[in-house]
């Protein structure tokens, strides 16, 4: 049991995840941003990248524009930032995600050399924070580098 627990901790430390909401309505409803920020952010099509770091939701870089254009940029930057392994990447999606976002992510993942892509429907935490149309990226850090 101790060995399984230790392995789970290692896997957890090597796993990186982020998500982008389609709009700021659910972040506003959850008290994560004010009404004014949500209104202006929605008008400007801002999408904050929410990373899960040490079990906490942390807002990072903000992306601007249509989600189908922003999603591939996030994937490229997130994969480079964390040096994600190319054998497998997971995309998570909430209900009502635009199919153009799915297509753009699949194309970018292939261009970046990811060998396997798995789509997973989100659970309640990401869905209630991101709302309809949100998506996320989950990958494992490349640990095979030699120093």
Which CATH first-tier class would you pick? Answer: Alpha Beta
Q: What is the overall shape?
A: globular
Count the helices. How many?
Answer: 6
β-strand number? 6
Radius of gyration: 16 Å
Q: What is the domain total for the residues?
A: 1
Under the CATH scheme, the architecture is 2-Layer Sandwich
The assigned structural class equals: alpha+beta
What order do the helices and strands follow? HEHHEEHEHEHE
Pick out its properties.
147 residues; alpha+beta; Hypothetical Protein Tm841, Chain: A,domain 3; 6 helices
In short:
By secondary structure, this protein is an alpha+beta fold.
Secondary-structure blueprint of this entry?
Layout: H1 2-14, E1 15-20, H2 25-29, H3 35-43, E2 46-53, E3 56-64, H4 67-82, E4 84-93, H5 99-112, E5 117-121, H6 124-130, E6 135-141
Parallel strand pairs: 4-5
Antiparallel strand pairs: 1-2, 1-6, 2-3, 4-6
Helix pairs in contact: 4-5
Q: Would you kindly provide a written description of the structure presented here, covering whatever features stand out?
A:
- With 147 residues, the chain is of the alpha+beta class.
- It has a single domain, classed as Hypothetical Protein Tm841, Chain: A,domain 3 (2-Layer Sandwich), CATH 3.30.1180.10.
- 44% of the residues lie in helices and 31% in strands.
- It has helices spanning 2-14, 25-29, 35-43, 67-82, 99-112, 124-130; strands spanning 15-20, 46-53, 56-64, 84-93, 117-121, 135-141.
- The chain has a six-stranded mixed β-sheet with strand order 3-2-1-6-4-5, sandwiched between helices.
- A hairpin with a 2-residue loop joins strand 2 (46-53) and strand 3 (56-64).
- The longest helix has 16 residues, at 67-82.
- It is globular.
- It starts with a helix and ends in a 6-residue tail after the last strand.
- The model has no long low-confidence stretch (mean pLDDT 90).
